C-alpha cells in the first residue's frame, strides 16, 4: 500500500446526504481483525455496558452500482466520508486536485470538504438527492445509477464523533487520505472484505448494516495503519498504541480513567522513568500525559452524559473528579457547555 496525502483548505457547507443509520464500532472476528479491534477499542473508547452508546458512530450510505457516464456532487458532509472501490474505477476531484481511484483503493475525505466523484472528469455530476432518489432519499442498501456503460461498484459511508471538540481523528487523518492498492497480500485481504461488504449490502438481509459497518471499521483501521507507515513521525494515539511501553500506560488510562493517575504512576505502568516517559509520550501524542488524560476523561464523560442515566456527580467520580463542581468546570472548558446543558442537547437531538 502507498498513501497519497493532500492537505486542503476547509470551507463551510450545508449538510447533504447524511446517513441516519449508526452502528457501534465493533470489528468482526478473525485473528488479524481481533488485533486491530483491540487497538481501535482502546483508542476510540468502546462502551462496555449493555445498551451504552459511544460518541463515535458510523453511517453506511450504500453500495453504489454505477454505470458510465455517472457523477456525484457532494457540497460537504458533516462527518468524515469514505469510499471503497470494490470494482471498476472512479475519479475524485477535491480542493482543486484530481485522484484516480482503482479497484481496491480506499479514500477518506474530511468533513465539510466539497468534492465530486465521477467515472470521467468530463461526466456530469448529479446531486446526492438525485442519486438516492430511487430509495426515496433514504441511505443504505443497494443504489443503482448511471447510463449503462462501464460498471463500478463503490461502498460509501461516513464516520463521526458526536463530541467533535475531542475528536481523536482530527490530528491523524489528512483532508484527503487515498490508500492505493498495490496488489499485495494486504490488498487481497482487503478485496475480499470489500466483496463481502458489497454482498451484504446487495442482499439487505436482516443485520446487513451491522455486518457492513463492522467490515468498514476494519477498512478504516487498515487505512490509518497504512497512513502511519507512510508518515511514521506523525504524532497520534496510533503511535502510542504501537509503542510497547507507552501502549501499556495508554491502555490503563483508557480502561481506568477514574483512577488518580499521576505522571509517576503512568511512568511505572510503562516501566519507564518519569522524565523518559513524559518526553516519549509528548513526542508520540504531541501533548503532555496529564493533558491527554484530561481530554480522554472528558471524552468518556461525554459518552456517559449522552447514553446513561447516571447522575452528573456519579459521572464526575467515574472519570476521576472528587466533586461535581470541579468536573463541571473542566468539562465546560473542554466542550463549551456545562454537563447538564450537553446532556440536554444530546437527548433533544436523539428525539
In short:
This protein has twelve helices and twelve strands.
Largest sheet: 7 strands, mixed
CATH homologous superfamily caption of the largest domain: Regulatory protein AraC
Q: What general outline do the C-alpha atoms trace?
A: globular
How many beta-strand runs?
12
Which sequence of strands runs across the widest sheet? 1-12-7-4-11-2-10
Count of individual helical segments: 12
CATH architecture of the largest domain: Sandwich
| Arithmetic mean of pLDDT | 75
Structural class: alpha+beta
Task: Sketch the topology as an H/E string, one letter per element.
Answer: EHEEEEEEEEHEEEHHHHHHHHHH
In terms of per-residue confidence, which ranges show pLDDT below 50 for 5 or more consecutive residues?
1-55
What is the helix fraction of residues, given as a range? 40-55%
What portion of residues belong to β-strands?
A: 15-25%
**Gyration radius, in Å:** 21 Å
Here the CATH topology of the largest domain equals Jelly Rolls
Q: Could you say how many structural domains there are in total?
A: 2
N- to C-terminal separation? Answer: 43 Å
Describe the protein in words:
The strands form two sheets. The chain has a seven-stranded mixed beta sheet, covered by helices on one side. It has a five-stranded mixed beta sheet with strand order 6-5-8-3-9. The protein starts with a strand and ends with a helix. Helix 3 (185-203) runs antiparallel to helix 4 (208-230), helix 6 (244-255) crosses helix 7 and helix 7 (263-269) packs across helix 8 (274-285). The radius of gyration is 21 Å and the shape is globular. It has two domains: 2-230, Regulatory protein AraC (Jelly Rolls), CATH 2.60.120; 237-350, Homeodomain-like (Arc Repressor Mutant, subunit A, Orthogonal Bundle). It contains twelve helices and twelve strands. Strand 5 and strand 6 (97-102) form a beta hairpin. With 351 residues, it is α+β, with helices and mostly antiparallel strands. Mean pLDDT is 75; it is low at 1-55. The relative contact order is 0.15.
Amino acid at each position: 500500500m502507498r498513501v497519497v496525502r493532500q492537505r486542503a483548505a476547509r470551507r463551510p457547507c450545508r449538510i447533504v446526504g447524511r446517513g441516519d443509520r449508526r452502528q457501534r464500532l465493533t470489528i468482526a472476528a478473525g485473528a488479524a481483525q481481533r488485533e486491530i479491534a483491540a487497538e481501535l477499542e482502546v483508542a476510540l473508547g468502546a462502551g462496555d455496558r449493555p445498551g451504552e452508546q459511544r460518541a463515535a458512530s458510523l453511517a453506511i450510505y450504500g453500495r453504489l452500482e454505477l454505470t458510465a457516464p455517472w457523477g456525484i456532487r457532494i457540497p460537504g458532509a458533516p462527518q468524515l466520508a469514505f469510499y471503497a472501490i470494490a470494482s471498476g474505477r472512479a475519479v475524485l476531484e477535491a480542493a482543486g486536485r484530481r485522484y484516480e481511484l482503482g479497484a481496491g483503493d480506499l479514500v477518506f475525505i474530511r468533513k465539510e470538504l466539497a468534492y465530486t466523484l465521477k467515472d470521467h472528469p468530463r461526466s456530469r455530476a448529479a446531486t446526492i438527492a438525485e442519486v438516492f432518489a430511487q430509495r426515496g432519499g433514504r441511505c443504505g442498501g443497494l443504489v443503482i445509477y448511471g447510463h449503462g456503460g462501464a460498471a463500478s461498484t463503490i461502498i460509501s459511508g461516513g464516520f463521526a464523533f458526536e463530541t467533535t471538540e475531542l475528536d481523536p481523528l482530527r490530528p491523524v487523518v489528512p483532508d484527503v487520505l487515498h490508500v492505493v492498492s498495490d496488489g499485495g497480500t494486504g490488498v487481497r485481504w482487503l478485496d475480499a472484505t470489500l466483496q463481502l461488504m458489497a454482498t451484504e449490502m446487495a442482499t439487505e438481509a436482516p443485520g446487513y448494516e451491522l455486518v457492513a459497518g463492522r467490515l468498514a471499521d476494519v477498512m478504516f483501521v487498515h487505512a490509518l495503519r497504512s497512513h502511519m507507515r507512510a508518515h511514521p513521525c506523525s504524532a497520534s494515539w496510533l503511535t502510542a498504541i504501537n509503542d510497547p511501553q507507552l501502549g501499556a500506560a495508554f491502555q490503563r488510562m483508557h480502561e481506568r480513567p477514574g483512577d488518580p493517575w499521576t505522571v509517576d504512576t503512568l511512568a511505572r505502568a510503562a516501566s519507564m522513568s518519569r522524565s523518559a516517559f513524559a518526553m516519549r509520550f509528548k513526542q508520540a501524542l504531541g501533548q503532555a500525559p496529564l493533558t491527554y488524560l484530561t481530554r480522554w476523561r472528558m471524552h468518556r464523560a461525554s459518552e456517559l452524559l449522552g447514553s446513561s442515566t447516571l447522575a452528573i456527580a456519579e459521572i464526575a467520580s467515574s472519570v476521576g473528579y472528587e466533586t461535581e463542581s470541579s468536573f463541571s468546570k473542566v468539562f465546560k472548558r473542554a466542550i463549551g457547555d456545562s454537563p447538564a446543558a450537553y446532556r440536554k442537547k444530546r437527548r433533544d437531538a436523539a428525539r
